[in-house]
Each structure stands twice: as C-alpha cells, then as structure tokens.
Specification:
There is one protein chain. The protein is of the alpha/beta class. It has a single domain, classed as Luciferase-like domain (TIM Barrel), CATH 3.20.20.30. The protein has six helices and seven strands, in the order E-H-E-H-E-E-H-E-E-H-H-E-H. The protein has helices spanning 17-34, 55-65, 83-93, 140-146, 154-166, 183-209; strands at residues 2-6, 38-41, 70-73, 76-77, 104-105, 108-109, 171-174. Strand 1, helix 1 (17-34) and strand 2 form a beta-alpha-beta unit. Mean pLDDT is 78; it is low at 121-135.
Length: 214
C-alpha cells in the first residue's frame, strides 16, 4: 500500500492565500519525512474549495523542497491547455534535475459542468457534461461505515484502509486540508498517520515478502 496526499487548496477567506501555500509546502515537506509516497495537485478555477489555477507552478516548488515523493496532477483540465504547453511546463518543472522526471506524473481530464469555468468564454465549446458520484452518508460516522471517509484515531484509519486493501486498492490518497482544519491540526494528523498508520502497512508488506522459514 502506497500513501499520498491530495490537496484542494480551499480558501474560505479566513487566512491570506500566501500563508495557505506556505503552510501547504511545510506540510508536504513534513509528510515526506514521515514516509508519504506522493502528493497530488488539482486544477481549479473560481471555486472557494479549490484555488490552484496552475498545478505545474506548485509542482516546481514542491520538487525543489522534496527529494523522494512522487508529484502528480489530479487533474489538469486539458481543454484549457494546449498539449504542447503542458509538455513544456512539465519539462521545465523537472529540468533542474532529470531524476525528477521519474517522480512526476501528469494526469489530464475534462471539465466538470458546475465548476464556474464559463468565465473562460473562449473555451465554452469545450465543456463536458459531468456526473459526480454521490457520497454516501450524512454524518462522519455514516460516511466511515459506508467507506466514504477515513477518519478517527490511527486504529480507526487502519481498519478503514484495510477494507480498501481487501478490495485490491494499493494506493491511498488522504485529503487532510479540509474545511477550516488548521495548519496545526493538519501537522498533528500527518504525524499520527506517519507514526502509526503507514508503519502498520509497511510492516504487513515486509511480512508478505519474507520467505517462509524452514
């Protein structure tokens, strides 16, 4: 099981945007120290819950401050980009060290219908119909029981992730920057996850790989 972070870069207006990005970089650097394998950056426009207009710019900053983590886009909205421009930006993001190419991944997608992208008037014709999967459960406990959320203490998270693992899931992305969660609380959650949850699955993997003792 590999573990990653997924960031929405929510902006609810209670802290300056430059502070949001400084704190996010600090969280990602700490997550790498704790054993997280990847970080995933979405492209959003004109949305309170997501304010990252160009994931490649932040990917370049993350690449300079990390050594091992895979850096992925999830996703870049291709109808707003020229494919050659995306390729160029990806190239210059990791041009400082060609070894970065082995840990960067560009994922592309289409446009959700309700994302206010109509402000890009010249791209109106490129919009696609989007149907979102319904998230089951109204309370956090119901969502955890339904497998729609992973929350609680480390033991709770381990039990939830083991359910995913039993279904064949081998990569888990955690979105810890949700709503009004403070930087301090996110750092604490990362620490708990890195100290207890990730080592649990790493140890399980080692036991599976060890040859049977005679």
């Amino acid at each position: 099981m590999k573990f990653g972070l997924f960031y929405l870069f929510s902006d609810f207006g209670n802290i300056p945007q430059d502070r949001v990005f400084r704190e996010v970089l600090e969280e990602i650097e700490y997550a790498e120290e704790l054993g997280f394998d990847s970080v995933w950056l979405p492209e959003h426009h004109f949305a309170i819950y997501g304010m990252l207009g160009n994931p490649m710019v932040l990917a370049a900053a993350i690449a300079r401050s990390t050594c091992r983590m895979q850096i992925g886009t999830a996703i870049m909205v291709l109808p707003f980009q020229h494919p050659l421009r995306v390729a160029e930006e990806w190239f210059f993001t990791n041009a400082r060290d060609r070894l970065l190419a082995a840990r960067e991944q560009v994922d592309l997608g289409t446009i959700p219908e309700d994302y206010r992208y109509h402000y890009f008037d010249r791209f109106k014709e490129a919009r696609f119909q989007f149907v979102a999967d319904k998230v089951h459960g109204n309370t956090i406990d119901e969502m955890i029981d339904a497998g729609s959320a992973c929350a609680g203490n480390p033991e709770d998270c381990i039990r939830t992730i083991e359910k995913y693992e039993a279904m064949g899931v081998d990569q888990f992305m955690a979105c810890m920057q949700a709503g009004y969660t403070s930087h301090k609380d996110i750092m604490h959650s990362l620490e708990l996850f890195g100290q207890y949850v990730i080592p649990h699955f790493r140890e399980k993997a080692k036991k599976v790989k060890r040859p049977a003792q005679a």
